[in-house]
Amino acid sequence: MARPVIGIIGNSYLINDQYPSHAVGTMNSCAVAHAAGALPLIVPADPAVTSVAELLDVCDGFLLTGGRPNVHPSEYGEAETPAHGAFDRGRDAVVLPLIRACVARGQPFLGVCRGFQEVNVALGGSLWPEIRDLPGRDNHRMPPDGTLEEKFALRHVVTFTEGGPFHRLMGAREVMTNSLHGQGIKRPGEAIVIDGTAPDGTPEAIYVQGAPGFTLSVQWHPEWNAASDPVSRPLFAAFGAAAAAWAAGRKPVPVLRSA
């Protein structure tokens, strides 16, 4: 039986500061293959080489990955500042309309870090350029030094809404997650439900209220050790099941509504 196809949104890079490339982290492909049970397909997020219509036709679901470039603030009506960091306007042009199309169609996606932020922006929300500069907030950025294991180590609790989709999926109201992001949700977009938060109040888990398909998105990086991590595994398994249902020609049953 053929596996469902998950389009993994790629980022633009310069290899050795010279060679342009579209790439995704190996851990994303492994999470899709081994935890979601799907076929990973790298998507070059560039409107010069692909279109939303083609992606919707080829893929059964989408993993909206993290990435160093941030969503351009003009996408949520704010001016660019140095605090907003680097950008990838090609990715903005592809992924924001892709999200809106998926929400309307019920086609599943899982948002991760930048992808989580893209979901909020795509539905009319805004972002803080730097969480650690806000009063009472912690530094959620990746540790600058150390091994990958140290950078992706569990750093804080995320608390889910009682009876909400994440609570039901995880079987617990509190889980431990890693933290590797600088920006975060400022104003939630239309129909965005914040279903989990960090101890400092930073939104960490969201879904789209009333959407017909799977729209769970998280601010942390569940692709790290996804097949063995007790928090990541059920998240990717549910995403993979939704993609398989879409591939079979039926709208996936969403894990979206509170009990």
Structural summary, described in words:
The protein is of the alpha/beta class. The chain has one domain (5-247): Class I glutamine amidotransferase (GATase) domain (Rossmann fold, 3-Layer(aba) Sandwich), CATH 3.40.50. Helix content is 27%, strand content 22%. It is built from 7 helices and 13 strands. It has helices spanning 26-35, 52-58, 89-105, 114-122, 148-151, 165-170, 232-247, and strands spanning 5-9, 11-15, 19-23, 39-43, 61-64, 109-112, 126-128, 156-160, 174-177, 184-187, 192-197, 203-208, 217-218. Strands 4-1-5-6-13-12-11-8-9 form a 9-stranded mixed β-sheet, sandwiched between helices. Helix 2 crosses helix 3 (89-105) and helix 3 crosses helix 4 (114-122). The protein starts with a strand and ends in a 12-residue tail after the last helix.
